[in-house]
Amino acid sequence: MELSLIRFVIAAILITGGVAVMCIATFGVFRLNTAMKRMHAAAMGDSLGILLVMLGIMVVYGLSASTLKVLAILALFWCASPVCSHLVAKLEAMTNLNLEDECEVPQ
Question: Among 1, 31, 70, 100, which is least packed by CB within 10 angstroms?
Fold first, then answer.
């Protein structure tokens, strides 16, 4: 087997796995009933999914400047995702009057 074929197979497995994780997370977002639960499903799924997809792209490019760019995009995404999740949770906590009935809120 050639090295390029092995890289292609590894990249295909990683990218397919990442897309599958994102699709399952999307299904979870529509399946869950409260905003907090939806936010958790979306945040966990996109972090793992984007990691697998970006690793697959890195395997395709090999060691190059493009790999560093993909790594920078991954780092930016991992910094932005928790901030967005926190803002959504804060908005939900401020606007939802029935939050204590829907979620476990510590007293």
Answer: 1
Q: What is the pLDDT of residues 3-31, one digit of tens each?
A: 789 999 999 999 999 999 999 988 888 88
Residue 40: CB atoms within 10 A of its CB come to: 17
Reduce the DSSP state of residue 46 to 3 states and report it: helix
pTM of the model: 0.78
DSSP-based three-state secondary structure for 104? coil
Counting other chains too, the contacts that 1-4 makes at CB distance below 8 Å and 24 or more residues apart are none
Closest CA to 57 of 12, 25, 17: 12
